[in-house]
Structure formats: structure tokens, C-alpha cells
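Thread: "does anyone have the structure for this chain?"

Original post by V.I.:
We have the sequence but no experimental structure in hand. Need at least a predicted one for the grant figures.
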Amino acid sequence: MSYEGWIILTGSLVGITCGITGCFLILRRMAMLADAISHTVLLGIVGAYLVSSSLEGIYMFIGALIVGLLTAFFIQLLDSSGVQSDAAIGVVFTSLFALGVILVSLYASRIHLDVDHALMGEIAFVPWDTLVLFGMDLGPKAVWMLGSVLVINLLIIIFFYKELKICAFDPEMAMAIGIPVMFMHYLLMGMLSITTVASFDSVGAILVVAMLIAPGASAYLLTDKLSAMLLLSALIGIASAVLGYYGALLANVSISGSMATMSGILFFLTFFLSPKHGLIMKWIYRRSLSREKREYQQ
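Reply from O.Q.:
Generated one for you, C-alpha cells below.
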């Protein structure tokens, strides 16, 4: 595959993986938790490095998973103690992220791990960091890592689809019929954590947050069916990656930043043009209703 093809494939895998995971966060009104965990996994990555002296994928996964679950646990603990949910997210997010930044500055400043790279990433370097097995070049490590996480997330969604769906729409009903709501909550947080760390090194936290929220939010405006929402969010994630890449080439700007911007543009287009929930369609409907009301009164 060409250099350009690997970059587009990496961005598309981020869009698909983050998009389908973000759908459940949006339905549960937990979108800002994605922002929190996408930053606090920095602490998990640097912690894994300090323990193992390695930045191999498995150690990053374990570290990010632990810190992601801890982030969700601390937020849940503060929320259940009477702290408002947005304040709980803000306190835990800033504290753990700041701790990660301090540890990077103190103990990991000489390795390929810094705050700017964590936030912005550099997807243009992805095709050069390849996986070599038995002398064969199998392609970029990021593609294999993202592909593996996508398969894991799809298997979780397939096997726990009914439980995730009920917990997303009506957690009280889920609890009443015996579904382990807290287990499903932390399972979703685990999905979010490994999705974030898989995308973290190549594309940075900003694109991860954009892809976790914007494609799912766009799909939410286009359909009322969860299965269709998952499919649409994946397609919108792919479109954001492809259009963002060519937009970056035209404007000579950051590829990750352009992909994140494109995901926002597609959301606003959906917000205005959605056939059912779009702003323009609502305006047309109100005008039509007002006209029918005047005709009835006459």
C-alpha cells in the first residue's frame, strides 16, 4: 500500500473505532468523559513505561486500561458523594493529566513521549514505524494495533449488544431486570481506554476526542435506531479521515487537526441539514405548521 493509503487507513480505523464507542457515550450523556480519559491515559502510558522501561503496545494497553478505569471510578465516586458530574470530571481529569505531565517531565523527557506529541500526535510518521515479523514488513504498527482494538470492541458490542443498549437508554430498567449495570459501565470504560491508547501515539488526544464525539453526535441526528447509529458513525468517521487528509494536503496543515476539523464540519452540516432533526427542517416544519394554522383560522 502507498504512503498516502496507510495514513488514510490509520485515520479511518481511528474514525471507526472511536465512532462506534462514542455512540454509547453520547447515549449515556457521558461524552465529556471521553475527553477526560483521552487525556488521563497519558498517566497510564508513562506509568507503564516507568514500571517496564518499554513503550511496547501491551504495556501501554495495560497502563491505559488501569488509569482509564481509575478515572471512571474516581468520577463515579465523587458524583455519588454529591459533587456535580461536570465538576467531578473536571477535578479528576485535570489532576490525573497534570500528574502524567509531571512524570513525563521528570522521568520520561529523553524518550519518544512528550506532551505536545500526546496532544497532537503525528499521523504522517505512521507508515515509517512498521511491524517486522520473520523478516517480513507487515505494515505500520498503528494499523495492527487499531485493527486489533476494533475487533475487540466489535466482539464486545456483538456479545453484549442487548445489555449495552438497555443500559444506554434506561439504566433503571436494566438494573430492575438483573443486568449488571456497573459491570457494563466499566466494560464501556475499558473499551474507551484501549481505544484511546491505540489511537494516542499516532494521532494524538485531540483527534481521539473529536472522533469519539462528533461522528456519534452526527449519527444521533440522522437516525433513531442504535444499529443504524453505529454504522453511520463509522461511515462519518471514515469520511472525516479521508476528507481531512486531502484538506490537510491542500492547506498544508496538520493532518490530525484537519481530520478533527472535518469531523466538526460534518457534524454542523448534519445539525443544519438532517432530514428529521436538522435546524433547517425544523424551520420548514414550523413555517408549514404556522401556514396551516392561519388557513384553518380563515
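V.I.: this helps a lot. The chain has one domain: 3-216.
O.Q.: and Residues 121 and 200 are 7 Å apart (CA to CA).
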